[in-house]
């Protein structure tokens, strides 16, 4: 039963507005695979995100700004400059790759880091089989279609934007200071039967390495200009953008220039053509991490501040960076500040991308349109790196040693080129007759990919009269006279792949209330063996706009109620290699010929001529609704995706790829929104979404077969990426406690060690007692946005949350090879009966307490104030005197605050299909306060 609500005004007026709103809603045009369509004609789940959502955010990659915006889309960002987000649409459905298919103005690309967010007109996120089957073997992980801005008919528009932002860190890992480290380390020695460390009189510092390498008040700037002009015959647009970003660690400098051009020409009423390109040029940063800073012992000063002369009296060691104490990590950990400062600016890396496109389109026989499009993608990166030499001071011996044990400087040089050529030829038939509306499309497409890589290495030689390679970029070439030619090595790689496809789609609706969509695609690829090269994918979708029915006409406040469902098959072609059916060889030993030793080669894996694409059988049941004159919207969907014939790499006596195993992902998606205008001067809106996701491994290569990936396991019956280890039931408090507990078969135990649970009840702790200890996939994620406009002031705030997942902490758990610094929680360690039942004693001689266990599991739930913006739009009458059409000033704060339960920079972590959600302390997602201006002339 559907209830009718009445909020004032005549029923006739309300119905008139409702009809108008409904017409506007269903006439909305969205971009789909190989074309566009009216939203009313679609049975699938396509979410359209306006370009303004990502345009004024301090992110180089536009997909970063989608976090929390779209139901069913998980976005895990990294704060490193120029980084790519981990994006998963409707869970993890393959074991080789998780990223969706990106399409930029028709071009299939693997990354959209070359797209300027300010150039985006819209982003369409495709999630269900009805909208994705047209992509065939590229549709498994969903798709994100980017449409950039084009010229429009009318006057010339010039848009200028500029912003500057400052970074700061919110949450930092909590690690022990010098005094705390000395306590824990001496306890460790005592528990191992050794005397206390006798050099803490020398190493009495309290150094916070994170603070030393952090770039304080790092700057982000973004500037650009866009020009567009057009008339009935020709529409042109051009844009240029420049962005600079400093990382959260010193000397991580990233910059990018972007360029875009489009020209659409209407030759006659029936013939159209166009040309365009997008391009970027980036200087890539020399990326670092906080790992050394977290692990380095805090008791040593970063720099030697005592005057010590060399034995020959010619050199004062004052000012040299200190080596970490010999017994406290020096062999494994470099001085973090020395590593940063001595190797600063020793990387020169650039990347260039250019994507041209051209199309020709004509109408014929009244209802037919034929369009041919040609696309190119050229991506080239090159770089040079230098490994310098230097001296480190050894405080214990008052001597010096080579930096990183390096006595010769060396260089590396590389170049990688990727070329892709794509062509689409599409025939479209559109016909309206009576109450019938039909759009049919048939087409052919092909993509050719070509990759080439070359790398070289060389070092200096003391026998060379020129000596060491200087720390000067002009000499960082393999051809340099400073390079010892006998030391040079060169390697190269090249791959080629071709894919062709025939495709077709039908969009049909009757009376704008009964909708049918059907798609089919046959993919052929050189990546597969000749006898299995082609595979068919299909989908079928249907929808019913109930509000169009006669019996709904008396419902005054319901504008749209649309039920829809779709089913189909998708595929995954993102596999570990291009030649899985060819014999590939690698070095696997040596052989002796004529008393000379030569490398021997063995097969990397046994070829399989029966490989085929993974196949995903997917279905969705959903509804769309709008209420109260479009003020309230509510959408809901249930989806299920089952992947079979997983492309599995089997390791054993022989290694090979095969199609085996299956996984499932399913869940619910809910989206709701409310917007209203209280008066001419005040309006507000609220948007919210919630997603549930469950994954499960249905089968594997064979019964009992298991794939291990770090702390994660892939085994039938478990969620994808499950963490695997022991369950901690507390701490052994006494020897009697140990005697009364199951015996340990994995190491000798003593009071203060973990008490692992005997899962199989056999009376002893063995590897068989390991079990699932965590699931990295959240029970649900959610996001909501609040916004308001009062006169010329605008306000919006984005919030994002995750609940019900676990994070595996891979850092700060102790190390048996060298003393590392401790998490501050270790101060609550066990020191005697009853002192702790969770933190074990300080004892590093055994790996028992470092076995993967629930001790390493952290609650991954968090809540974040993702973005807050306040803007002011100047009065048009005021700014028209300076030839401005619009002028906006705004203040934006990104990542304002995160509340979480992990000890680390961030509670979220991406990863691979099989291992994700691992907290390695991470790289911070900084808070960024940005001030910007946007002006239109």
Automatic annotation (TrEMBL):
One of its GO terms (cellular component) is cell outer membrane. It is found in: Cell outer membrane. It is a multi-pass membrane protein. Pfam families: Plug (PF07715). The keyword Transport applies. Residues 38-143 form the TonB-dependent receptor plug domain. InterPro entries: Beta-barrel_TonB_sf, Plug_dom, Plug_dom_sf, TonB-dep_OMP_SusC/RagA, TonB-dep_OMP_SusC/RagA_CS, TonB-dep_rcpt-like. Keywords: Cell outer membrane, Membrane, Receptor, Transmembrane, Transmembrane beta strand, Transport. Its main location: membrane. Belongs to the TonB-dependent receptor family. This is Outer membrane cobalamin receptor protein.
């Amino acid at each position: 039963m559907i209830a009718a609500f009445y909020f004032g005004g005549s029923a006739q007026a309300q119905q008139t507005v409702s009809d108008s709103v409904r017409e506007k809603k269903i006439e909305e045009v969205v971009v789909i695979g190989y074309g566009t369509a009216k939203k009313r004609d679609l049975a699938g789940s396509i979410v359209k995100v306006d370009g303004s959502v990502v345009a004024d955010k301090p992110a180089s990659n536009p997909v970063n700004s989608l976090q929390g915006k779209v139901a069913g889309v998980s976005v895990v960002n990294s704060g490193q400059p120029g980084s790519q987000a981990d994006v998963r649409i409707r869970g993890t459905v393959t074991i080789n790759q998780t990223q969706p298919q990106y399409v930029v103005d028709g071009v299939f690309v693997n990354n959209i880091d070359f797209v300027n967010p300010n150039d985006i007109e819209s982003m369409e996120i495709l999630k269900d089989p009805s909208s994705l089957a047209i992509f065939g073997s590229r549709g498994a992980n969903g798709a994100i279609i980017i449409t950039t801005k084009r010229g429009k008919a009318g006057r010339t528009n010039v848009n200028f934007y500029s912003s500057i932002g400052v970074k700061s860190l919110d949450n930092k890992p909590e690690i022990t200071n010098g005094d705390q480290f000395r306590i824990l380390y001496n306890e460790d020695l005592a528990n191992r039967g050794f005397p206390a460390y006798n050099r803490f009189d020398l190493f009495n510092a309290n150094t916070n390495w994170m603070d030393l390498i952090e770039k304080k008040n790092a700057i982000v700037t973004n500037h650009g200009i866009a020009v567009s002009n057009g008339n009935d015959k020709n529409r042109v647009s051009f844009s240029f953008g420049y962005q600079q970003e400093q990382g959260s660690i010193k000397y991580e400098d990233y910059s990018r220039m972007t360029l875009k051009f489009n020209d659409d020409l209407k030759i006659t009423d029936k013939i159209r053509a166009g040309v365009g390109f997008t391009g970027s040029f980036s200087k890539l940063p020399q990326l670092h991490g906080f790992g050394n800073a977290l692990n380095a012992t805090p008791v040593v000063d970063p720099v030697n501040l005592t005057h010590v002369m060399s034995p020959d009296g010619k050199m004062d060691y004052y000012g040299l960076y200190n080596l970490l104490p010999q017994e406290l990590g020096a062999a494994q950990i470099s001085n973090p500040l020395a590593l940063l400062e001595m190797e600063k600016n020793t990387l020169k890396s650039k990347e260039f991308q250019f994507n041209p496109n051209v199309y020709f389109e004509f109408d014929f026989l009244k209802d037919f349109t034929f369009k041919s499009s040609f696309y190119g993608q050229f991506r080239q990166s090159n770089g040079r790196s230098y490994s310098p030499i230097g001296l480190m001071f050894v405080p214990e011996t008052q001597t010096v040693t080579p930096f990183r044990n390096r006595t010769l400087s060396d260089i590396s040089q590389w170049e990688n080129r990727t070329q892709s050529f794509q062509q689409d030829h599409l025939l479209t038939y559109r016909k309206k007759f009576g109450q019938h509306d039909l759009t049919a499309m048939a087409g052919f497409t092909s993509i050719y990919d070509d990759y080439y890589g070359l790398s070289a290495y060389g070092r200096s030689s003391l026998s060379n009269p020129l000596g060491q390679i200087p720390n000067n970029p002009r000499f960082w070439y393999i051809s340099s006279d400073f390079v010892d030619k006998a030391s040079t090595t060169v390697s190269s790689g090249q791959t080629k792949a071709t894919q062709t496809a025939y495709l077709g789609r039908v969009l049909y609706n009757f009376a704008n209330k009964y909708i049918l969509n059907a798609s089919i695609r046959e993919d052929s690829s050189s990546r597969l063996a000749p006898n299995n090269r082609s595979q068919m994918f299909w989908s079928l979708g249907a929808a019913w706009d109930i509000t169009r029915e006669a019996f709904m006409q008396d419902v005054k406040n319901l504008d749209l109620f649309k039920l829809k469902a779709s089913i189909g098959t998708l595929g995954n072609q993102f596999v570990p290699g291009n030649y899985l059916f060819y014999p590939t060889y690698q070095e696997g030993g040596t052989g002796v010929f004529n008393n000379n030793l030569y490398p021997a080669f063995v097969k990397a894996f046994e070829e399989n001529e029966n490989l085929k694409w993974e196949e995903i059988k997917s279905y969705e049941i959903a509804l769309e609704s709008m209420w109260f004159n479009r003020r309230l919207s509510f959408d809901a969907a249930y989806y299920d995706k089952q992947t079979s014939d997983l492309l599995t790499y089997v390791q054993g006596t022989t290694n090979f790829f095969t199609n085996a195993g299956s996984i499932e992902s399913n869940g619910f998606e809910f989206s709701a929104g409310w917007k209203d205008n209280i008066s001419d001067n005040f309006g507000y809106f609220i948007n919210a979404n919630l997603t549930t996701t469950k994954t499960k491994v249905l089968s594997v290569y064979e019964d009992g077969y298991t794939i291990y990936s770090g702390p994660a396991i892939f085994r039938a019956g478990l969620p994808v990426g499950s963490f695997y280890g022991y369950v901690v039931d507390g701490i052994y408090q006494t020897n009697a406690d140990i005697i009364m507990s199951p015996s340990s078969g994995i190491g000798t135990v003593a009071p203060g060690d973990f008490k692992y649970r005997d899962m199989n009840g056999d009376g002893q702790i063995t590897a068989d007692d390991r079990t699932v200890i965590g699931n990295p996939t959240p029970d649900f994620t959610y996001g909501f946005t609040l916004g308001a406009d009062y006169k010329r002031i605008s306000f919006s705030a984005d919030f994002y949350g995750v609940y019900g997942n676990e994070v595996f902490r891979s850092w700060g758990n102790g190390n048996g090879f060298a003393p590392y610094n401790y998490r501050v929680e270790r101060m609550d360690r066990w020191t005697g009966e009853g002192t702790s039942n969770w933190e074990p004693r300080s004892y590093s001689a055994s790996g028992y307490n470092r076995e993967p266990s629930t001790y390493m599991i952290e609650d991954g739930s968090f809540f974040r104030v993702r973005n807050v913006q306040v803007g002011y739009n100047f009065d048009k009458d005021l700014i028209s005197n300076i030839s401005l059409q619009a002028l906006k000033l705004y203040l934006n704060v990104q990542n304002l605050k995160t509340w979480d339960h992990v000890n680390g920079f961030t509670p979220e972590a991406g990863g691979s299909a099989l291992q994700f959600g691992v907290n390695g302390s991470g790289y911070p997602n900084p808070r960024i306060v940005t001030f910007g201006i946007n002006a239109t002339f």
